[in-house]
């Protein structure tokens, strides 16, 4: 349920359950909660083992697999990632996705941010958006610092951040700081109970449960591809012109070969 986007808003949950939002509110209060938000947080809460052991636990399947049947692990990961992508598509809040794409297309400036494993996703989104629009970059590139990066942004600019459980504190702090100064934040994370959601202008939830020895990025990469393609579709001729300029410069500099 953690990656089910419908529970983020009472209206979308009510629509999914085919009841009025007031019915959900009454249920929450009858159960002793002050309102839907408190009820939702309890609904999404999970009993977690200490985060210090996360990677050791997560790697157990890979560490104890049958080394004479390595292909079985390949097939298992393929099945798991296919299910994750299907669940992402089936549970995606289309309105939230559309609003996210419009922000990525229209914001005066877009920055991306993540560290550790998710740095690759921030770089991927940065690269893709940079193909189709101007004023896109990494928040702290090339390692000049997040404070300087945020100080160079203005109210109405967009910051896309990535993290999933166990969440990196620094990413939460940066997202919070950006949100508090009026920067529009796009949070790409795994659960509606993620601490990043509190500071999000828009949230995209991505499931990632697999037997991979760390957090799987396959569904996150699919999400990023979807956001880039969606932004290109929304920009239309503007994106086409940007891609044509790119092709011309690649040809001028003789960068690629068949």
UniProtKB/TrEMBL annotation:
Endpoints of the signal sequence: none
Phylogenetic placement of the source organism: unclassified sequences, metagenomes, ecological metagenomes
UniProt source species: hydrothermal vent metagenome
Keyword terms, alphabetized: DNA-binding, Transcription, Transcription regulation
Domain HTH rpiR-type: 1-50
One annotated GO biological process: carbohydrate derivative metabolic process
A Pfam family annotated for this UniProt entry: HTH_6
UniProt keyword annotation of Lipid biosynthesis present: no
PROSITE patterns: HTH_RPIR, SIS
Gene Ontology terms, MF aspect: carbohydrate derivative binding; DNA binding; DNA-binding transcription factor activity
Ranges where the SIS domain occurs: 100-249
Parts of the chain that traverse the membrane: none
Protein name: Transcriptional regulator, RpiR family
